[in-house]
């Protein structure tokens, strides 16, 4: 297939040196090739790796591990994106933060961040934690995109998020939610068909998922079926610098191998993501 018009890496984690170091150390346990990436690599340099590999824009996620860190992290996201206009920064908050609605307002109105990212495993909370319900309610009303980690429960040594995530959809059906990793490993891929029909504001983030659906694997046909039907609601990224392969170009190249046709390739490469974050590309 010919190259896509643009490429948006819809899932990256460019963060402070401390958090980048922690992230690379963590992924090295699963992906040995990350030994080649210096733990001290600054975020700007990681961004350069992604641009060299072909990314025109990247959607960046950086979430707090503890309460009280959110404002500083969200400010860091703003400053980083100001220095690097190809970065589309998402805010986050911690379920333990006291002033969650104020953090949302500050992130969206003052810092002009694009959406919110949550990671129930790493941030250690239940998706339907009572303290999070007003957060989803506000984000639903604003129409703000929310990327929620789902999937890979065994990798994290945690319970599947299938039930909780489906309960979130049922409770906030208008929330513009992006299911990161598509509940991979925890729910059969074919179930997405019915769920996507039921919830028109739901999007899927195929980051990491595609690494397990390479042509020749038993999941190729299943993922291609979902992509053929719903590419307009699917995005793709690398999880760099903690993705399923190193260097990052290996992950970018996967998309062309897995997409069944050129239109779906364009959708996952940039078109769906551009629509989601209101980036004016044609
Ligand atoms: Zn991630």
- Helix coverage percent: 40-55%
Quaternary structure: single chain
- Would you identify the regions where 5 or more consecutive residues have pLDDT less than 50? none
User: What is the tally of beta strands?
Assistant: 8
Individual helix count: 11
Supply the CATH class.
Alpha Beta
Please state the second-level CATH architecture. Alpha-Beta Barrel
Sequence of secondary-structure elements: EHHEHEHEHEHHEHEHEHH
How far from one another are the termini? 19 Å
Q: Could you report the average pLDDT, rounded to the nearest whole number?
A: 97
Give the strand order of the largest sheet, numbering strands 1, 2, ... along the chain.
Answer: 4-5-6-7-8
What ligands can be seen in this structure? zinc ion
Which structural category fits the helices and strands? alpha/beta
Radius of gyration: 17 Å
| Major sheet description | 5 strands, parallel
The number of domains is 1
Full CATH superfamily name: Metal-dependent hydrolases
The name CATH uses for the topology is TIM Barrel
């Amino acid at each position: 297939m010919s190259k896509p018009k643009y490429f948006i890496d819809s899932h990256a984690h460019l963060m402070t040196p401390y958090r980048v170091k922690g992230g690379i150390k963590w992924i090295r346990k699963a992906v040995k090739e990350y030994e080649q990436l210096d733990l001290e690599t600054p975020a700007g340099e990681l961004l350069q790796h992604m641009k060299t590999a072909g990314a025109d824009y990247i959607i960046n996620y950086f979430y707090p591990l503890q309460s009280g860190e959110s404002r500083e992290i969200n400010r860091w996201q703003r400053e980083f994106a100001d220095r690097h206009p190809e970065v589309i920064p998402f805010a986050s908050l911690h379920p333990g933060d006291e002033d969650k609605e104020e953090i949302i307002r500050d992130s969206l109105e003052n810092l002009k961040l694009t959406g919110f990212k949550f990671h129930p495993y790493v941030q250690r909370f239940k998706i339907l934690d009572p303290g999070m319900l007003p957060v989803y309610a506000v984000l639903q009303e604003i129409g703000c995109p929310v990327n929620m980690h789902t999937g890979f429960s065994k990798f994290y040594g945690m319970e599947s998020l299938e039930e909780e995530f489906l309960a979130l959809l049922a409770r906030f059906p208008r929330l513009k939610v992006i299911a990161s990793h598509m509940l991979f490993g925890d729910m059969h891929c074919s179930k997405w068909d019915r769920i996507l029909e039921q919830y028109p504001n739901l999007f899927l983030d195929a980051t990491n998922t595609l690494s397990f659906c390479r042509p020749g694997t038993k999941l190729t046909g299943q993922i291609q079926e979902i992509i053929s039907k719903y590419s307009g609601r699917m995005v793709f990224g690398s999880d760099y610098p903690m993705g399923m392969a190193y260097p990052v170009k290996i992950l970018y190249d996967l998309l062309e191998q897995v997409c069944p046709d050129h239109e779906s390739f364009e959708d996952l490469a940039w078109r769906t993501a551009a629509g989601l974050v209101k980036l004016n590309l044609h």
